[in-house]
Specification:
By secondary structure, this protein is mostly helical. The chain has one domain: Cobalamin adenosyltransferase-like (Hypothetical Protein Ta1238, Chain: A, Up-down Bundle). It is 58% helix and 3% strand.
C-alpha cells in the first residue's frame, strides 16, 4: 500500500518534477500533459457521481423514483471502476514504458473489452441517432459530455507523446482504452438521459432551423414589459 506522510516536497518549485522512475522532466512534458489530463478527467467523474447522487430519489408524494435509484446503483459500480482504471493508467504513463517499476500492475485487454460489452448493453435501450447531440441537459448528463471531451484531449496529448517518443513509448492498449472510454461516456450520457426521460438536444442543419428573433429583440420585449410594470 502507498503511504503518504507529506504532500508538499518543494522539489517542483522550479517547474520540473520527477517521473515514477525518478527521471526529472519539465512539467509541460507531453507525458505529464497526458497524466495531468487524466487527473482532471478523474475529478470530473467525481463531479458526475456527485450530481447523480444529488438527484432526488423520491417523488413529491413520497414514492421512490426507481429510475434514479437504478442510475445511482450502476454509476457507483461503473464510474468508480473507471476512476480506479484512470489512476492505474496514469501511474503507467508517468514513466517510460521500458522502466515501469515492478510494483505497478498494468491493466490488460479485458478492461477495454468490458467497455465495449457495457456499451452494447446500454445501446439496447437507445434509439439510433439521426443527428449529432449537442452537450447539455440536467447536471449529470452535461457533466458526462464534459468528461467525454476531456478524454479526447487526453487522447490528443497521448498521440503527441507517441509522435515525440515513438510508437513503442505507449502500449497500444492505452490508445484503445482512451478511444473506447470517450465512446462509453457518450453512450452512458445517452443512457442516463433515456432512463430519466430527458429530451436530447440535437443539432439541426442550418437550412432546417426555424428562424427566430435574435436575443436582442427578446431582451427589448422583456424590457418593454418591465417599463410598463
Amino acid at each position: 500500500m502507498v503511504r503518504i506522510n507529506r504532500v508538499y516536497t518543494g522539489t517542483g518549485d522550479k517547474g520540473e518534477t520527477s517521473l515514477v522512475d525518478g527521471s526529472r522532466v519539465s512539467k509541460d512534458h507531453p507525458r505529464l500533459q497526458v497524466v495531468g489530463t487524466l487527473d482532471e478527467l478523474n475529478s470530473i467523474l467525481g463531479m458526475v457521481l456527485m450530481e447523480i447522487n444529488r438527484m432526488p430519489t423520491k417523488h413529491s408524494d413520497g414514492g421512490l423514483r426507481k429510475n434514479v435509484l437504478e442510475i445511482q446503483h450502476i454509476s457507483s459500480f461503473g464510474l468508480k471502476r473507471i476512476q480506479q482504471e484512470l489512476f492505474d493508467i496514469g501511474a503507467e504513463l508517468a514513466c517510460p514504458i521500458d522502466n515501469v517499476p515492478k510494483g505497478i500492475q498494468l491493466l490488460d485487454q479485458d478492461v477495454g473489452d468490458l467497455l465495449l460489452s457495457e456499451m452494447d448493453s446500454m445501446q439496447n435501450e437507445l434509439e439510433p441517432l439521426e443527428s449529432f447531440i449537442l452537450p447539455g441537459g440536467v447536471a449529470p448528463i452535461a457533466t458526462l459530455h464534459l468528461a467525454r471531451t476531456v478524454v479526447r484531449r487526453a487522447e490528443r496529448h497521448l498521440i503527441q507523446l507517441i509522435n515525440q517518443e515513438g510508437e513503442q513509448s505507449v502500449r497500444s492498449f492505452v490508445k484503445e482504452y482512451f478511444n473506447r472510454l470517450s465512446d462509453w461516456l457518450f453512450v452512458f450520457a445517452r443512457w442516463v438521459s433515456k432512463r430519466l426521460d430527458e429530451q436530447e438536444f440535437l443539432w439541426v442543419p442550418i437550412d432546417k432551423r426555424i428562424k427566430t428573433n435574435s436575443i436582442s429583440k427578446i431582451i427589448e420585449e422583456q424590457q418593454s414589459r418591465f417599463d410598463i410594470d
